[in-house]
Amino acid sequence: MATIARFDPFRDLAVLQDRVNRLFGDAYGAREEGVLSNWVPAVDIFENEKKELVLKAELPDVRKEDVSVTVENNTLTLSGERKFDTEIKKENYHRIERSFGSFSRSFSLPATVDTSKIGADFKNGVLTVRLPFREEAKPRSIKIDVAG
């Protein structure tokens, strides 16, 4: 059975915009315009030895309360907000390179993931989401009898 994913032509536009902003920001000084713009956290996705997909998202200076993980129609969505530190006056900054504001990333899940057993934890600014495979999707050995 094929997984149907909603086509969103603008999904990667935020990533491209952030890369262009970083390119020009590094070349022309501080990126003051990025202070309250949307940002896209970096994500690694891999399979571990327990035969589950693991998604790790870098969320430095984001509080656990400001992060949301949802699953709907085989789509995993990470969203939240990194808030600008209002205790420091803006005029006291010499350079601002980090972006602040809301973020949202969506990932299509393969049909082999058991969405009822997804778990997440947040430690040291890294969100880890574990996506276990369904039992029937895990590889197993089959004994072959030789007739003869």
Q: Could you describe the 3D structure shown?
A:
This protein is mainly beta and 148 residues long. The chain has one domain (13-135): Immunoglobulin-like. Helix content is 11%, strand content 31%. The chain has one helix and seven strands; from the N terminus they run αβββββββ. A four-stranded antiparallel sheet has the order 1-2-7-6, with no helix packed on it. The protein has a three-stranded antiparallel sheet with strand order 3-4-5, with no helix packed on it.
Overall geometry: elongated
Q: Name the CATH class.
A: Mainly Beta
Helix proportion of residues, in percent? 10-25%
> What is CATH's topology name?
Immunoglobulin-like
Q: Report the oligomer.
A: single chain
Write the layout of secondary structure elements.
Blueprint (H helix, E strand, L loop, with lengths): L12 H16 L14 E5 L4 E7 L8 E6 L2 E8 L18 E8 L10 E5 L2 E7 L16
Antiparallel strand pairs: 1-2, 2-7, 3-4, 4-5, 6-7
